[in-house]
Amino acid sequence: MSNPTSTPSDSGGSGAAQPTTVTFESPFFGKLEDAFFHRSEQSGEVVLTVRFAKNFVALPFRGIKREFKIEDDSPDGRMLDLVTKALKFVKGLRLGEPLPKEILTREASWELSERHLKIAYQRVSVQLVNWLTGGQDVISDPEELLQLADDPQIKKTVSRAFGEAAERLGLGRDHKEEVVQHVEALAHELAYIEALRDKFRHVRAMEDKIQGLRRLYGRERSVLEVADQVARLGERAVDDFNSAFLEVDAQTGEILSVLRNLDSQISYIRDKRDEIHAKLMAWDEILDEWGRVTLKISPDKPDLLRRAYQFLAPRYMAVKEWVLMTKLQSTESAGTSQMGGTDGKPKKPINVMRW
Length: 355
Description:
By secondary structure, this protein is of the alpha+beta class. It contains 13 helices and five strands. Helix content is 56%, strand content 6%. It has a five-stranded mixed β-sheet.
């Protein structure tokens, strides 16, 4: 059983040190005004948005590579690949900004709260107590887990569990501090899952409000049709996130097995952390909007439901349904979109330059 370590990702085989910030060798990048890397709202592909005169233009990476003869295995080609990977974890990057830790050391680039660390530690401790006592208690409520942290009897049982676990793992009871260290390392990684689980509660709250609006508009057929579609998609979204959290819980449920294979388990947890985080990151704006929603009939509710449908449909509608729907929908004028300013993007019309 070895201590988990954070190792830098492969830098592309060049032997050079892994870059940690968004930097390029080509003078083209240094001459750009308001350069901003992000995913296109229209296509989902990664683009570089720059200012030309009073307008913003989005340049797809493939066009940049072709126009400036940037080879895939060159430093700038590798940096464009790193930016593409980075935008799974952050909404945008500017020149000179640090690359997220997820693609450098596999650590998380976002901060944990003390609360989530305590919840994760208590969840692992309860698993150890269950293993020691043969109990089957599954405590999912975070507040109940936090209360257990101050229970003297629980503390005593946990301490005994550390010693017994050290014995079972072949370390000897006198080396229970090693088990404590491994439990703390495991809890640190699981704390990110707890933080994401907390954020997921806002998705559930949004889904509850959608169901509430369905009931309110039960007599207005035109609104109810949209609400029904949004509700179905909302249920799929909740099920999708639930499945991801249940998978993590099941994978890390056998505590002795997890501690025996700590490095591989931490690698698994980080993969799931990144997967769930990337999905939830896309919800930021819509969760903020629905967080202010009150359950009462008002003129803005039909548009609110339509916006929710536009967000949910491409993510949770069955592929065949979505292909059919996109064929039926009228397309917007090619090459323009509006970008909001909450995440640093320029709030101007964008022309997509196709090279």
